[in-house]
Amino acid sequence: MIIGVPKEIKDNEYRVSMTPAGTHELVDAGHTVLVETGAGTGSHFADSDYEAAGAKIVSRDEAWGAEMVIKVKEPLPDEYQFLRPDLLLFTYLHLAANEKLTKAMLKSGVTGVAYETVELPDGSLPLLIPMSEVAGRMSIQIGAQYLERFEGGRGKLLGGITGVKPANVVIIGGGIVGTNAAQMALGMGASVTMLDISLPRLRQLDATLHGRFVTWVSSPLHIARAVEKADLVIGGVLVKGAKAPKLVTREMISTMKEGSVIVDVAVDQGGCVETTHATTHSDPVYFVDGVLHYGVANMPGAVPRTSTYGLVAATLPYVKKFAKMGFKDAIAADKALALGVNVVNGKLTYKAVADAFDDLAYTPLAEAL
Fold it and tell me: DSSP letters along 95-143, please?
């Protein structure tokens, strides 16, 4: 198979969808890998590294002209021109929060497989996990930075000092993002409150995380009370493939202390905070009612070397399966990959995405094929 690796064009996105080592494995298996000039420079992979691994360094058009294109982030409007019926696109899509992209993909007839909805039998999302780990850990680093006074925050040190209370961190959602955020916050000495709807999950976290750590069953009243006292709120809620629920309301925001900080990691799926909107690394924050909001939709792009290695370690086995077997045989053989299919033949095949829009219908995958 001919596999294309375009350069990411999202604001300050420095990740790349394939490493030289992964390229070597694909070429060694008999596939052709077309890497756009400069695609890996943001992650400190030179064109010569890819050439040494057997790739061909090509133009943007040539990379997008491959049979399968693998990316990191969803196509931006400037890339819609490359979507076509005979293309297999394998990347993060987050369609439920992006009606314009969803309709562009449907119109083009492209086959779109979303990293974030590839799902194993145990319910885990293997291609989302590594970036959720990165984002969860980064959320605390970022929150600690923006709590500093010259950034507009309350001027609090996350871990406090002897005789001075630490910052109060509230984490909504006990999944991969929330767990990694809690580990980082506790490691820095913060006081952490974790809210989740699952008692078994809270019980598991209570048994494994130690320090100033409190668990609380999530409910609108409990969220409101926790948020009101928070210095830093981390939104880590995920509904697989669907738009994130708005669990923190505008009314709750108005009760928060001036200079407190919100980092909404769920912003890729629309955000779990009512006042959240997507921002960029170039312009990452804004204020609502005196509360600083951070809503960068590609947080892991700030640490591309770590993120690229982590992402490719997870995606490469699936890329190899598509390359070896082709699209239809691969999804027939692997139910996890089949669940990753969001769009095919102009049909929307992931129900949670269809449910996010009033005018788009869901079509079962077997019927769409």
Answer: GGG-HHHHHHHHHHT-EEEEGGG---TTS--TTTHHHHHHHHHHHHHHH
Cβ pair 327, 88 in contact under 8 A: yes
Annotated catalytic residue, options 94, 196, 293, 334: 94
Which CATH architecture is the domain 2-109+307-368 placed in?
3-Layer(aba) Sandwich (3.40)
Active-site entry in 49, 231, 264, 268: 268
Fold of 129-302: Rossmann fold (3.40.50)
Looking at residue 68, its amino acid is: M
pTM: 0.90
Look up 206 and say whether it is catalytic.
no
pLDDT above 90 for 243: no
Active site residue 268: yes
| Per-residue pLDDT tens over the stretch 308-335 | 999 999 999 999 999 999 999 999 999 9
Going from N- to C-terminal start, the domains of the chain cover 2-109+307-368, 129-302
Distance CA 54, CA 319 (A): 17
Task: Specify which residues 91 forms β-bridges with.
Answer: 114
Distance between CA atoms of residues 70 and 4, nearest Å: 6
